[in-house]
Amino acid sequence: MAKYNVEEILEGIRQNDIKILQYVYRTFYSYIKYFIISNSGNDDDARDIFQEALVVVYRKLAEDQLDINCSFKTYIYSVSRLLWLKQLEKRKIKNELSIDNESYVELEDDTKDLSEQNEKYGLYQKYFRRLSEDCRKVLEMSFEKISLKHIAEIMGYKSEKYAKKRKFQCKERLINEIKNDPKFKELL
User: Is 125 a member of any domain?
Assistant: First the structure.
């Protein structure tokens, strides 16, 4: 099995390289799984936390905000540990973490912020996908700063005024669906 250094792993994650991602899972997942299961979690929790940690790494890379000065194992373990502590806090589990022999680094609060952003974006995506195709198209075009006049033309609406009304209705529907989700209150 090939071994990769930190730079190769990070570039592989940035490029969504299947070989590197498989290597990361094979090499580092077991450490995270052991930690989570040892601390009130289960297999599903371990998979979710590991996946979320990789998303955090990916997003930091995409924003060019990742500077690792330790091994990748230590970094991914640190991110996963922080995410799991946050999850336990949400679940109101106050158990002391079992002592582990893995080294970790204290991470800045922006990792917590990224985790929250991931959760908020996931909630947004869930309800955005449930909108009608018409609503999704209107909102996507407005996100891309396409004028209401042009949206009306593309969608075959009679007027710019109706495009504005439709955009408002779709946006309101999306906001209401998100606000009615129990997870929304947790994220506030």
Answer: no
- Domain range holding 163? 131-187
| Together in a domain, 149 and 104 | no
Q: Is the domain of 84 the same as that of 143?
A: no
**HEC profile for the chain?**
CCCCCHHHHHHHHHHCCHHHHHHHHHHHHHHHHHHHHCCCCCHHHHHHHHHHHHHHHHHHHHCCCCCCCCCHHHHHHHHHHHHHHHHHHHHCCCCCCCCCCCCCCCCCHHHHHHHHHHHHHHHHHHHHHHCCHHHHHHHHHHHCCCCHHHHHHHHCCCCHHHHHHHHHHHHHHHHHHHHCCHHHHHHC
Its pTM stands at 0.54
pLDDT digits (tens, 9 = 90+) for 144-170: 888 889 999 989 999 999 999 999 999
pLDDT in tens, 8-33: 999 999 898 999 999 999 999 998 99
